[in-house]
Amino acid sequence: MSRGRTDGSQKKRLVASICAVTIFIGFLYVYGGSIFGSQNSGSSALEYGKTLRKLGSSYLGADDDNDGKDESSSSFGQGDEEDNIVPKSFPVCDDRHSELIPCLDRHLIYQLRMKLDLSLMEHYERHCPPAERRYNCLIPPPAGYKVPVKWPKSRDEVWKANIPHTHLAHEKSDQNWMVEKGEKIVFPGGGTHFHYGADKYIASMANMLNFSNNNLNNEGKLRTVLDVGCGVASFGGYLLSSDIITMSLAPNDVHQNQIQFALERGIPAYLGVLGTKRLPYPSRSFELAHCSRCRIDWLQRDGILLLELDRVLRPGGYFAYSSPEAYAQDEENLRIWKEMSDLVGRMCWRIASKKDQTVIWQKPLTNQCYKEREPGTRPPLCQSDADPDAVWGVNMEVCITPYSDHDNKAKGSGLAPWPARLTSPPPRLADFGYSNEMFEKDNEQWRERVDKYWSLMSQKIKSNTIRNIMDMKANMGSFAAALKDKDVWVMNVVPQDGPNSLKLIYDRGLIGATHDWCEAFSTYPRTYDLLHAWSVLSDVAKKDCSPEDLLIEMDRILRPTGFIIIRDKQPMIDFVKKYLTALHWEAVATADDDDEVVFIIQKKLWLTSGSFRETE
C-alpha cells in the first residue's frame, strides 16, 4: 500500500481501532487506578504470575507458590462476605516506590497541600496517609537487588544495586563517608568531623573524659548513645566493638538514604528529626548524646531542642558537640558559642572537657543546681504532673525535666554496668508494679522461647544469616536479652497504647522506639532480617485497624529472604496463612507453645521483570 492512499474503508477501520484503544485505556485507568485508592501518583501494578519474575525457589530450595490451592474459604473475624475475600495476589507498586516510607512521604505532603513550618522541620516529621490513600501494593526491590552483604563485612561495604544512590559519595568525598568501588559502596569510617576515621575520634573523646584505656564505654557504665544527624552512622558502627549501642538518628532530608545506608550496613538507625514532637524515646534513656556538625540551631525557640536532649539524657549524661561554634574565632561563631554557653549554664550543664574542635557537656546528677537558680530563671522546670515519658505525638516543651525524688536521692541512674545491666532488675521496674521475681521469670521464659525459635529455623539459617531484628511488641525486652550471645541487634518497639515499658528496655542497655502499629514504621523498605510479632496482629484487629495492612507493612520492612516469627492465637495464624501466596511468603515451621501458636515465615526473593538483572 502506497503512502498517503485515501481509501474510505481504511479510514473506517482506523477510526474503529482508535475508539477501541481509547475504551481499553479508559478501562485500565478506571479499574487499574482503583488498586491504589485515590492516589494520583500514576503508579502501575504488576500482577504475580504475569510480568513478575520470581526467584524464591533458587534461594529457598522451595517449590513455587501453591497457585492451585483455594485459600479463601475462611477468614479472620466476622464481617460482610465482601470483606472476607482474600486476594490471590497483591499488586506490585510502581518501581518509583521502591523506597517508599508511607508516613515520611514528601509527595503526600505536596498532594494534600499540608501547611507545615519548614523552619521547624515539620516536613521531616511523620504525616501518615489517610485510609483512602494507603498503598495496598508490595514494594519492589530496585533493579539488580542482591541479598545484602553479611555482618560484620557489611559495616564496611554494601551492594550499590541495593541502594542505587551515589550522590553522598561525591558530595562527601573529602570526608570519607563512602566511596564507590565497582559493584559496591565502601565505607572508610569517616564523617563530617572525623575524616580520618571514627575509631580515632571515639578514642580521643574517651581520652578527653579520662576513661580508662581510652575506651568510651567507661568499664560498662556508658552503654546507650544517641547520635543526632548521624550521616551514614559510622560513629555508631564503630562504637559497637566497644559494647556501646547507638541510636543513629537522621531525617530523610537532602542527604537522602543516609539511614537506609546505615541499616543496610547492619548498624542500628532510625528515621527521625528534632522538630516539634518529642523523640520516640522515654526520659533518661542515653548516657551520651552526640552531634558532629549536625547543622542544628540549638538556640532556636528558647533552646527547646537542647531541652529535648536533656530529657532523654540520664543523670550525669554527656553531650559531645563537635562543631565550628566550639572552636572557631570569627564573630558569628563566637556569638553562638557565648549564647549557647549561657543557655546550657542555665540548664545546669557543666563543661566536662573541651579540646581542639570538640566540647563535652555533662548533665547534673541531682536537682540541687535547679533549686539554686534565681527565681524566674529560664528555662523553667516542667510541671510536676507532666509525664516525661509520654512521647507519641507529644509536642516538645521549653522546660527542664527534673528528677524524681528517688532518682534525686540515688544521685544517678542506679544501673549496673554492662553486661550485668542486661539481666539485673531495672530500678524503674517498680513503676509498673513488677517484682524482681516477675522480671527473672520473664527472662527465663523468653530464653526458652528463643531457643525454640532458633531450633525451628535451624535448617534455614547460619550464624550470620540474621543481623537486624525488630521485636514489634517488646514488653520488658527479654526477647532481645535472650539474643545476647548472637551477633545481632534488636529494635525493641513498644506500642504507644500499652504499658510504657520502653524505659525498662533502655535501662537494660537495649534500644527501641515507641510506635502505633496502625501506622507505617519510620524505616525504609527492606531493612530488617527478622520481625518478631507477639500478638501484634491480634492487638491491631482489636483496635479496628487492618491486620491485612499490617501484613503489607511487615512485608515492606522485611528484607527478601528474611523471616517473620508470629506468636499469636490460632485464629490469627489461620488468617495469616491465607495471605502467604499473595505476599509471596513461605511457611517454614509451625509449633504449639503454651496456649499460643508459633508460625515462622520466610519472604521469598522476587524482582519485577522491569527490574530484573542477574544476581549473585
TrEMBL record:
GO MF term list: methyltransferase activity
Coiled coil (residue ranges): none
Top-level class of the enzyme under EC nomenclature: transferase
InterPro entries to which the protein is assigned, alphabetical: Put_SAM_MeTrfase, SAM-dependent_MTases_sf
Cellular location(s): Golgi apparatus membrane; Membrane
Chain ranges passing through the membrane: 12-31
Cell membrane keyword on record: no
Alphabetical UniProt keywords: Glycoprotein, Golgi apparatus, Membrane, Methyltransferase, Signal-anchor, Transferase, Transmembrane, Transmembrane helix
Membrane topology according to the record: Single-pass type II membrane protein
GO-annotated cellular components: endosome; Golgi membrane; trans-Golgi network
Keyword field contains NAD: no
EC nos: 2.1.1.-
One biological process term in Gene Ontology: methylation
Residue span of region Disordered: 60-86
The organism's place on the tree of life at top rank: Eukaryota
Pfam families: Methyltransf_29
Family to which the UniProt record says this protein belongs: Belongs to the methyltransferase superfamily.
Protein name, UniProt field: Methyltransferase
Organism in which the protein naturally occurs: Vicia faba
